Amino acid sequence: MTKRVVSVQDISCLGQCSQTVALPILSVLGIETVILPSAVLSTHTGCFEGFTVHDLTEEMPKIIAHWKKENITFDAIYTGYIGDVRQFDYIIDLKKQLNPGGFVIVDPAIADMGELYPALSLDIVDGMKKLITQADIIIPNITEASIITDTPYKNSYSQEEIEVILHKLADRGPRYSVITGVSFEPGKIGAGCLDKSTGEITYYFNDYVDKVCYGTGDIFSSVVVGRLVNGSTVYDALKSASDFVTSCIRATLDDDDHFYGVHFESVLGDLLR
Ligand code: PXL
After folding, report:
1. What is the 3-state secondary structure (H, E, C) of 11-38?
2. How many other CB atoms are found less than 10 A from the CB of residue 59?
3. Residue 181: CB partners within 8 Å, gap ≥ 6?
4. Cα 161 to the chain's mean position, in Å?
């Protein structure tokens, strides 16, 4: 049976992030992808000025009520960038109504490189803290993991420090706590994951490709969601996501003009293999 996932995040019309990467990635992995857009923006907020934002909070309960009437259910709920704090209660209601006992994957897309995204207020951080108590797996980058656990952000972290943060994340709810963008030696970057049920921490690393790119966190999470929903282990899902993001960055390396995202389209077919 085809799996059905609802992706709850914004539509950045231009920007190769959030819904515009979740949809193609989950589709290529054979998953029916339903979108619940949290807002429509002209671009993402990472490296543009003057972007437009149209909030869709008021549509959310209406859309959820209609799906409920149509007896729609989801195998998983996948959440990303959320721009309005009122949406967290709607997402929790979505789980209750249409995904009881199903899987919830939260990418708390609030920050990167030590900074909260410019359009977000601090109440979004509190909302995210509340949402992750409902999650089975959370996929923050190091900045987000630090903010969520009230840990001061640093430019680099030892393995011991990462593991303290992983445990703090686990204390907040989810069975699996992932941190992306982890590096303990020059030239290697990857993800760590704590399985709260066993206490086991696993890592997967790739060679570091020296280019800062936007949207890679959303691409990483979308691959993890697709793989998990298709029955992969968490380790295999992280490996696939990490390998794919590395390929996406490599595919963009020579294009100095492409400043706002990665050319994931040219390597999307790799996910079929
Ligand atoms: O990639 C995360 C993301 C998603 N959506 C919006 C963003 C960002 C990051 O900047 O601005 C609107």
Report:
1. EEEECCCCHHHHHHHHHHCCCEEEEEEE
2. 14
3. 141, 142, 189, 191
4. 22
The pTM (predicted TM-score) of the whole model is 0.98
CA distances to 3, 102, 154, 165, 206 from 187, in Å: 37, 38, 19, 23, 8
CA-CA-CA-CA torsion sign (55, 150, 177, 242): positive
**Closest atom, ligand 1, to C-alpha of 214:** 1
Residue 8 host element (H or E) = strand 4-14
16 vs 229: CA distance, rounded Å? 22
155 CA from centroid of ligand 1 (Å): 21
Does the beta carbon of 141 sit less than 6 angstroms from any atom of ligand 1? no
Q: Does residue 19's CB lie within 6 angstroms of at least one atom of ligand 1? A: no
Which residue lies with its CA nearest to atom 12 of ligand 1? 44
Please give the span between the terminal C-alpha atoms of the chain, in angstroms, as a whole number: 20
pLDDT in tens, 224-262: 999 999 999 999 999 999 999 999 999 999 999 999 999
Distance CA 112, CA 11 (A): 19
